[in-house]
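User: tokens in, sequence out, please.
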């Protein structure tokens, strides 16, 4: 009978837990709380991407802009209605009186002498010389729509043709009218610089864009409730002495003429089209 027995002791844990000494809790103050809050806020902001900072400002700015747009009409109305007696008011015309003078600085003027040369070369057609009226020209390619054409303009009279060109385009007196078996000559101003591009609705300077036409483009004329279509066959620049632009060779042709380069009168840009 055994009086003693051996029992193996359990292995010792090599990881010795460190005893953490508890620091005594100090008194909580407002300064310490603010320091902790500001620290956490700065840490949060530093972790935010720049885009996240910009978007809130954009939303705020957009909101203020909308509010301004809504409030401005009411503020203006209030000022106009309540403070009218205390303000000096002045009527300003929508179109300044100097508009015609300003435009005259850009447009060309072929001169009555040039037209006199053409008149000596052209015998007026008895079928058209007595017609008085207005017809309309359209060239969709260069955004000319129903430009008014004053018929049988006495181009030897400077005051007469300038008055016609001040309204739109002019039909050279004595040349044929649309539909007849000869040449219809229509002329108009051209403008220097980018005046015509900035004022596309100004029919007075519409012929500035004639140089953009190509062979095969269509031109339409509305005359006495009928519509005539012409196809461009030739585009050329000629000297003022060239009077061949009146020639039709017995065919139904349309000739458009303006000064070239735009705004100057040194040459003429001529577009010849044949009726379809």
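Assistant: Sequence out:
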């Amino acid at each position: 009978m055994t009086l003693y027995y051996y029992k193996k002791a359990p292995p010792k844990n090599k990881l010795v837990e460190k005893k953490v000494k508890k620091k005594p809790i100090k008194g909580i103050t407002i300064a310490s709380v603010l320091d902790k809050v500001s620290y956490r806020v700065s840490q949060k902001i530093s972790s935010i991407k720049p885009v996240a900072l910009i978007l809130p400002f954009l939303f705020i700015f957009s909101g203020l802009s909308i509010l301004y747009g809504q409030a401005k009409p009411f503020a203006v109305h209030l000022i106009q209605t309540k403070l009218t007696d205390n303000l000096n008011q002045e009527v300003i015309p929508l179109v300044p009186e100097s508009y015609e003078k300003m435009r005259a600085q850009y447009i060309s003027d072929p001169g009555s002498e040039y037209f006199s040369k053409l008149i000596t070369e052209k015998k007026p057609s008895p079928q058209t010389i007595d017609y008085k009226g207005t017809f309309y020209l359209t060239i969709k390619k260069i955004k000319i729509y129903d430009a008014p054409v004053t018929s049988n303009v006495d181009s030897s009279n400077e005051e007469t043709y300038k008055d016609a060109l001040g309204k739109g385009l002019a039909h050279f007196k004595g040349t044929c009218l649309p539909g007849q078996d000869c040449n219809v000559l229509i002329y108009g101003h051209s403008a220097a610089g980018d005046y015509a591009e900035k004022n596309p609705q100004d029919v007075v300077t519409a012929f500035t864009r004639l140089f953009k036409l190509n062979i095969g483009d269509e031109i339409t004329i509305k005359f006495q409730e009928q519509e005539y279509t012409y196809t461009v066959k030739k585009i050329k620049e000629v000297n003022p002495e060239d009077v061949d632009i009146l020639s039709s060779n017995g065919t139904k042709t349309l000739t458009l003429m303006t000064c070239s380069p735009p705004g100057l009168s040194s040459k003429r840009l001529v577009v010849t089209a044949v009726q379809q």
